[in-house]
Hints:
single chain, 3 domains, five-stranded mixed beta barrel, alpha+beta, DNA polymerase, domain 1, CATH 2.40.50.140
Amino acid sequence: xxxxxxxxxxxxxxxxxxxxxxxxxxxxxxxxxxxxxxxxxxxxxxxxxxxxxxxxxxxxxxxxxxxxxxxxxxxxxxxxxxxxxxxxxxxxxxxxxxxxxxxxxxxxxxxxxxxxxxxxxxxxxxxxxxxxxxxxxxxxxxxxxxxxxxxxxxxxxxxxxxxxxxxxxxxxxxxxxxxxxxxxxxxxxxxxxxxxxxxxxxxxxxxxxxxx
Length: 212
């Protein structure tokens, strides 16, 4: 299995790109947001999700590991395939997907092309009680990981928001709140205050949300 590719962008198409790794060109399917950030001739590191079937061997690429993890997580819902998962990731930032899952907000998923109200409702319902995807690296969202992604040309904002979200949820769990309740409160705060909110403010405002 292939989990990561690091090489040079050889070509970019409407739904896929060719990545030259030591003279071998890998055909990688990707969403429009990822493809828009690939420049022919530029070096790139892509996190890869590999799908192997009897009649196909497909690589799906993502600049950020959090996107790859959510791509897999979304497909745990019946009726969500690679196309729908890409559509959701193209239409909605990962941080807002996490908010929508915690709050059971189907309208967020309905914003994606090809995702109708029924499927959007199923996604919101089935994922609400599941923990968010952890990704492949225990260091995801930490400073060292963010710095590495930043040096490779990928913004570290998504990883930073993921880290603060999980730190805030952990703090509420330590205070005795249930995980679903804690995630809903943190999601409400991040949705209202924005991704730039400081950790201390997130915890303080979440406790206010949880106050009887």
